[in-house]
Write the structure tokens for this entry.
Amino acid sequence: MRKVITYGSFDLFHDGHYRLLQRAKELGDYLIVGVTTEKYDEYRGKMNVVNSLMERIENIKATGFADEIIIEDHEGQKVEDIQKYGIDIFTVGSDWFGKFDFLKQYCDVVYLERTKGISSTMIRQQAYKIIRLGVIGSGRIAARFAPEVKYVSGTNLEGVFNPKLESARLFAEKFELKFHTDELESFFDKVDAVYIASPHNSHYEYIRKSLEAGKHVLCEKPMVLQASQAEEVYQLARDKGLVLLEAIKTAYAPGFLQLLAIAKSGRIGQIRDVEATFTKLVSGDIRELRTEENGGSVTELASYPLLAIVKLLGTDYLDFRFDSFEDENGVDLYTKIYLKYKGATSTAKVGLGVKSEGQLLISGTQGYIYVEAPWWKTQFFEVRHEKQEQNEKFFSKFAGEGLRYELSDFISMIYGNERKGYKLTPKESIAINGIIETFLTNRLTPTKV
Ligand code: CTP
């Protein structure tokens, strides 16, 4: 019996898929089809697959060509499967020509001609209108965001707004955008959704204006500097039926999501303490160090550690205090925030003028989780126990700047997939923004927020 195997996402099942499976089956007597999980697709840079894994499996089943369907969830699995199932022929469409030649040491490799004029990507683009995205602000974070957009299907970065027209022009030129402008109205006319990457103090106004103009909003952290403002804009988004998401990139990253799932599974018992650190040395006449722009380590960096704390211990903290030291202008260069919970403690450590290990430690009654620096770009963590032989290591990918993950969820939510909102709920975002507000109003040199 000749056994054949093929793999794919098989999203929005189409004629190209049907014809591939038909010919794959004809190559032998028994056909195994490997279907990729959503997570593995994300890992290999394929975002926004529409059908669920079960739907994709059902569609393959319905063709009657597959004798067996398996799940593909990690790199290197093909070699394992070929040996495990005693495969004679590996086959795939000609778009992969040459890419799987290395499998020839295990079995025959056949590239079947790809059916012309159809692909899942094409159907996704036809069925789902491309979301025209525009960016407000053209600074450093915007420049890191722009190249990430191409990894997310269903959207395109069209243009940029900046009250300083020359900055907008340079940004548009660099990233080959269709337009740049210093007029908000004409900016809103040309986009469906906005990414706000302007200085903190301007977020609230831009969010409001964008929502009023009927645009979905993805806003850099800290989204706003007052909890009441956060509540107001989330309510406004709800009233208008628009998506509003705070762009704390870690919240949407696959490694961090896996970490949360494991930490909350009871693997380390009850969580009793969370310590999260993020420091970044900066100097010079920059926004981060200016009082009037609400600079400082907390506004710049605390969203990340607070995210970890709020995701792990919740939003109902009992007590809040901090220790901090400031420069001569009253900007905090280093701050330790303590949040006390019923049955748990936590510390967020942030610094712009002090360097420390950027790790995350989650301590429990039966062990702890160590997340290696930079934990906010979660790639590696270890679950550690009293008996070292029980320790387990976990690895995941954090692709590029990692901004594609938040964008992918943002676009998916605009398409109506509201379930994705669990990664950072309005309640969690409001709590984080509220802690930052409390810090700003109570610090040694209180700032107007
Ligand atoms: N395939 C094909 N002809 C097409 C499209 C896909 O033969 N017109 C084959 C691919 O070469 C692969 C299998 O079908 O062997 C599954 O491909 P998949 O990546 O799931 O489909 P695509 O339509 O190419 O998906 P996407 O656009 O998301 O990349």
About this structure: The first helix runs from residue 15 to 26. The mean pLDDT is 95. The chain has three domains: 3-112, 131-248, 251-448.
